[in-house]
């Protein structure tokens, strides 16, 4: 199983529409082939203008996804299916101002609330580091993906009253 970790900035409006809440795909008979047999899915993408095609190509089923907005990581999940959506069906159907052909589904979605500095500490980045869409280097992933998820969930539970 892959041990990749991806740090992913999000637009809250689009994120809420297709990740925080799964999309009911039965309403869309014209969906792309990789989604043809799914009744629902959580969908996200790499924006066409990001230039991170090689990062997207490294995504594999089971990789850890950490989503952030502003100064907080707001959710975690695992990569499900990745595919090229040449017709931009997903971005044209669900997202505003977010043209994308590199689509992936999210499995094992969990809302979290962890300050950026906390996640930066896990991967030995400076407290103020703000990543773009990126894969964390292997040398910075010193725990299992399950242990990382457990630490983030524990922090979220411990600080839920903040």
From TrEMBL:
Domain of life (superkingdom): Archaea
Protein name (Swiss-Prot/TrEMBL): EVE domain-containing protein
Organism per entry: Halorubrum vacuolatum
Phylogenetic placement of the source organism: Archaea, Methanobacteriati, Methanobacteriota, Stenosarchaea group, Halobacteria
